[in-house]
Write a structure and sequence with these properties.
This protein is mainly alpha-helical. It has nine helices and no strands. It folds into two domains: about 50 residues, Orthogonal Bundle (Arc Repressor Mutant, subunit A); about 160 residues, Orthogonal Bundle (Tetracycline Repressor, domain 2).
């Protein structure tokens, strides 16, 4: 019974902290206010969480876990149909699903991206950019292993980091403006198309040249490999 009670107190503290953090942000929240809202003493709160940052991370842990799965080191495979790169339609579908998630967790993600200054998770945008770059690195290793006789032009680390920053900043602004899902979908249709055609311009052209040489000089551009 004591263990159950301890778990209930911890849940009450996290729930109270979430309410206070959402209202005040990391910088404006105090442990005293959180303890008061949770109905526990400040000293009791410290037995569960050593400082405000640990409690802030606990509040955002579900979203941090979900976002961590984006770049989890899992097996890489080709898109359906054997194409080397995802089609624009597939990209639109994946981004659409991501935006539905963002809409559902908009308060927590706004807290993470726009109101976490001073916390240990304030560096999330940089971690996102690093994960984005590493994901692409693993994909090009996969392509070289899968197609040893072909040449693939990998985007530079500089470009990948800045594309990742574009995604983070776009989501930040949409959340700060509290845009509805429909509006976010419309914005990201444009962003996705812009980035997809740019990626095909970098990675597809080299493949087009390889195919041209194989066909005796006959020009045949296939942007999907």
């Amino acid at each position: 019974m004591a263990q159950v009670k301890k778990g209930e107190v911890q849940k009450a503290i996290v729930a109270a902290a979430k309410t206070v953090f959402l209202k005040k942000g990391f910088g404006g929240a105090t442990l005293r206010a959180i303890a008061r809202r949770a109905g526990v003493t400040l000293s009791n709160l410290y037995t569960y969480y050593p400082d405000k940052d640990a409690l802030f991370v606990a509040v955002l842990q579900p979203e941090l876990d979900d976002l961590g799965q984006l770049f989890a080191h899992r097996e890489i495979s080709l898109p359906e149909g054997g194409e080397l790169f995802q089609s624009l339609e597939t990209r639109h579908d994946l981004i659409g699903r991501a935006l539905v998630y963002i809409d559902k967790h908009r308060l927590e993600l706004d807290l993470l991206l726009n109101r976490a200054a001073g916390s240990s998770v304030r560096t999330f945008p940089e971690l996102f950019a690093r994960g984005y770059e590493q994901m692409w690195g693993r994909y090009f290793i996969f392509l070289k292993t899968k197609f040893p006789g072909r040449t693939f032009q990998k985007p530079s680390a500089f470009l990948l980091r800045n594309v990742a920053s574009l995604h983070v900043n776009a989501v930040r602004e949409m959340l700060s403006r509290d845009l509805p899902l429909e509006k976010m979908m419309k914005i990201y249709q444009e962003v996705t198309a812009f980035l997809w055609y740019g990626a095909m311009g970098i990675m597809g052209e080299r493949q087009a040249e390889v195919r041209e040489s194989r066909q005796g000089g006959k020009r045949h551009v296939d942007r999907h490999g």
